[in-house]
Amino acid sequence: MLKIYGQARSRAFRVIWLAKESNIPYEHIPVSITADKPECKEPWYVALNPNARVPTVDDDGVVVWETSAINLYLAEQHKSPLYPATPAGRAQMLQWAFFTSNDVEPPMITLYQHRALFPPEKRNPAIAEAAEAQLLARLKTFEEQLNKTPYFGGASWNMADFMVASVLYTLTAMKYDLSKFPKLNAWLQASIERPAAKEARKLRE
Ligand SMILES: N[C@@H](CCC(=O)N[C@@H](CS)C(=O)NCC(=O)O)C(=O)O
Questions:
Q1: Ligand 1, atom 13: nearest CA belongs to which residue?
Q2: 35 in helix, strand or coil?
Q3: Looking at CB atoms within 10 Å, which of 5, 12, 130, 162 has the fewest?
Q4: Are residues 107 and 154 in the same domain?
């Protein structure tokens, strides 16, 4: 059976959400990343993931780390109903997945750290402001797409949407005001209210 390593309050949440969307049975091993007892630094775990970070999966002997790689692999391997059937659909999925991982997630995480996650004395308003400026330009790209098609997958919510929503979930967790992006805001709210998302969120919220 699929094993998902990583506490639910981490990027492992995205893998748990995907498993639920795709009806993949799994065992959850909530490897901790907390400063006082980081199980992700223990030798047995580092043998699975040399970066000593979560998540990692072991899918009947296939070990994969890096959240996006894990989710794209699992969706294909387990024939997720979200996985696009055509090369063009898969190209769209990869386009939104890479854009989100490369260009959106880094400024979003920096903003989150310097606005909410770090203790106040470690927050740097200038770093937060620069990250926010970058993030806003990227959110505009999402909004423009949703002015053209109802979903990133085109006519239906598919793996392209999952790859974006599972990352942008952090914006909802930090209660970031998305009112400047009404289409994106409505799409993200609907995404995190999907039954599978709600089940996964219960494990961390
Ligand atoms: N690019 C990696 C990032 C993994 C990552 O930074 N994970 C965090 C939790 S969300 C972690 O393990 N932090 C603990 C640490 O870095 O020691 C991925 O997407 O899997």
A1: 53
A2: coil
A3: 130
A4: yes
Last residue within a domain, chosen from 45, 62, 81 = 81
pLDDT band at 112; cut points 50, 70, 90 = very high
Determine if ligand 1 sits within 6 Å of the CB of residue 33. yes
Residue owning the nearest CA to atom 1 of ligand 1: 66
Residues 36 and 59: their CA atoms lie apart, in Å, by 29
The residue range of the domain holding 27 is: 2-81
Block residue for tokens 């996985």 = 83
Look at the pTM and tell me if it is higher than 0.70.
Answer: yes
What residue owns the CA closest to ligand 1's atom 20? 66
Q: How many whole angstroms from 109 Cα to the centroid of ligand 1?
A: 11
The CATH number covering residue 30 comes to 3.40.30.10
Q: What does the angle CA 25 – CA 27 – CA 32 come to, to the nearest 5 degrees?
A: 140
Last residue of a domain, one of 81, 96, 131: 81
In whole angstroms, what is the distance from residue 96 CA to residue 192 CA? 18
Ligand 1 close to Cβ of residue 53 (< 6 A):
yes
Domain count, the chain: 2
Q: What is the pLDDT of residue 101?
A: 98
Please tell me whether residues 76 and 132 are part of one structural domain. no
Q: What is the pLDDT of residues 50-102, one digit of tens each?
A: 999 999 999 999 999 999 999 999 999 999 999 999 999 999 999 999 999 99
Q: Are 12 and 55 in contact (CB under 8 A)?
A: yes
Ligand 1: residue of 4, 11, 39, 67 to mutate (most ligand atoms within 8 A of CB) is: 11
Residue 198: the pLDDT is: 98
